[in-house]
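Form P-L/3: holo structure prediction, ligand phenylalanine.
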Amino acid sequence: MSADTPGAEDLQAEARSLAAAVLAALSAAAGTAELTAARAGLFGKGSPLAGLRRRLGSLPPADRPAAGRALSGALAEVEERYESRLAELRASERRGLLEAERLDLTELREPPPPGRLHVITQTQRRLEDVFCAMGYTVAEGPEIETEWHNFGALNFPPGHPARDMYDTLYVDHGAPGSTLLRTHTSPVQVRVMQGQSPPLFVVAPGRCYRQDTADATHMPVFHQIEGLVIDEDITLGDLAGAIETFTTAYFGPGFTSRLRPSYFPFTEPSAEFDVQRPDGTWLELGGCGMVHPSVLEVCGVDPERWSGFAFGFGIDRLAMLRYGIDDLRDLWTNDVRFLEQF
Ligand code: PHE
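OUTPUT (holo model):
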């Protein structure tokens, strides 16, 4: 064997050092793209490592098997290392991608903050509780009413000046002027008397509408609670007693009430009722009176046998007073920072 013809040992040594270089290059590849791009040059057909295989033929035949095995072993090792490095890089690239695209869902684990009843609803429910404890039941009526229930049956004939007390919003439905948004809860008196027989002890809370410009103490939508009592021998004294019982039950022991003469077409006599605070100041709360005999009659209640009283007042005003709210508009803006105080 001449000096310039490589022997089996040289070829094997060369294969080992080439394989070591390829293995180092595989480990150094930083990503799958770099790795696959380098593949052909490192150990593909035209690579130096594959080139060694062609030189096997120049070895003496006796040396060839051992050198061939060494060369195949080196190629197989490199191939195997390539596959495992590729799997390794793929896995780490996938982890990186998942991490980068991760959504933070931890917020969803927190339950949303609990809601609460609106301060007007709370006030309405408290009023219902107070009246239920006094033996009344709760009734409801529609917010879109007929002119007859809101006015006619309550003794306001068409063109009656008392209608001017109410800035009525009419609804474009049926004959002109026949349908409206109720201006008070008094039409529920009519519906209750028509639907049930006395004795009646009923309160009816709900929304009312008037054509008012919104300001600190007025809203075109507001809430009233109506009271209606019909029984035998009901007198003005019973009305005053009921108002007084309610006043102490709702406001507390230091509060008293009084009635002042007033006018409503559907009660006779009629009165305004005021509540006196412990500091002696008066608060105007609402209207009341003995149910007018012609209202009883029109609703199918015999005025010879039955008599009764009715009252009605604003719930929003009451809430303002109780919670120290000074602008009604705050109740409608739905700003939780305001509403969650109550
Ligand atoms: N409905 C009247 C109003 O809103 C109040 C009232 C109710 C008066 C019951 C008397 C009896 O002005």
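COMMENT: The pocket of phenylalanine is lined by residues 184, 186, 264, 267, 286-289, 310-312 (CB under 6 Å).
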